[in-house]
Amino acid sequence: MTGPRSRPADAPTPGSGASARPLLRATRAHPAVVLGAVAGLVVVVLAGTMIGAAELGAMAVARELLSGIPGIEVDSGLSERQQAILWQLRLPRVALGALVGAVLAISGAAYQGVFRNPLADPYLLGVAAGAGLGATIAVVYGTGSLAGVVVPVLAFVGALVGVGLTYVLGRAVTGVRSATTLILAGVAVAAFLTAIQTYLQQQNADVLREVWTWILGSLTRASWGQIGLLLPYTAVSVLVILLHRRLLDVLAVGEEEARTLGVRTGQVRLTVIIAASLGTAAAVAVSGLIGFVGIIVPHTVRLLAGTSYRVILPLSIVAGAAFLVLADLLARTVASPAELPIGVVTAFFGAPFFAVVLRTSRRLT
Asked: The domain spanning residue 328 has which CATH number?
């Protein structure tokens, strides 16, 4: 007879969370994927600054950008009018598009990690409905130039109110630990807020055009002031989400498994939801409702770079910025001299992509 065998040092033990170890190991994206994402962003940014009603040469744009760096003096060869177009119209629009795309993409990835749902996106928790209602109230009851100032403010407030109502309703039912309950609460809140918005629109048919222009999304009013307004919220949102990237990997293995590893799942979920909703609300306030970015970008990154959120989140920032700048470029050139709402362009790509994700969601989770 022999004594009981000793357990190998690395053998799983009940409740140890050993099945989670592969997800907790350091994960890095393939260098080709990272370089491709960065190169893609550089290309679309240059294209966004060059292409338009007034064509600007690539080398002239590059020299003009270099001349904007303190201590560097380069003659770009651009006229004063062309310089004004570049610095006052093109660059603010490209920068705002990149910022909005980045925050919508990383927020979508964060929601998918928190809810372990490949179909989750930034508008899941009543953000879009709340922002739409806020913007509608501003347009209906605002007067003159005041309406243009109040729209982003009330859209931001409405988005946060929508998220707050979702959280309160979800917690009142079963507590914040239930992701499914929060999703269902978000659907209920969105339906309620959308009903109020529809009522206001029907009672004020003369402002329907203005409301729908905002709802379909646009970067036509981009300015450095809007970028300055959005940047602090975006920075806080992105920083908090990135700091939780390892914990999102832990949540991916399951609720009970994460708890055995010492993760406070309810606190992590609430923190990430607040951060993602804050960034989304700020983005929506300045750009209107731009859908599908939070689904298209994270899933594309996931397919190319793997399932670890330590890779998905930072790459989603780069890819999201590139995607929305490209979408905006298409919006203002496809039907030139007319301009399409950017939400129409993202929906054109997003709707079939959503259908594919819906069909293959088991393999993507």
From this structure: 1.10.3470.10
Burial 142-159 (b: 16+ CB within 10 A, else e): beeeebeebbbebbbbbb
**pLDDT tens digits, 210-248:** 788 888 888 988 999 889 989 999 999 999 999 999 999
Neighbours of 272 (CB within 10 A): 25
pTM of the model: 0.85
Domain that holds residue 243: 30-359
- Asked if residue 17 belongs to a domain, the reply is no
Number of DSSP helices (H) and strands (E) in the chain, helices first: 17, 0
CB 153 within 8 A of CB 138: yes
How deeply is 203 buried, as exposed, middle or buried, from its count of CB atoms within 10 A (0-12, 13-18, 19+)?
A: exposed
Task: Please indicate, yes or no, if residue 14 is contained in any of the structural domains.
Answer: no
* CA pair distance 279, 101, nearest whole angstrom: 11
pLDDT of residue 2: 46
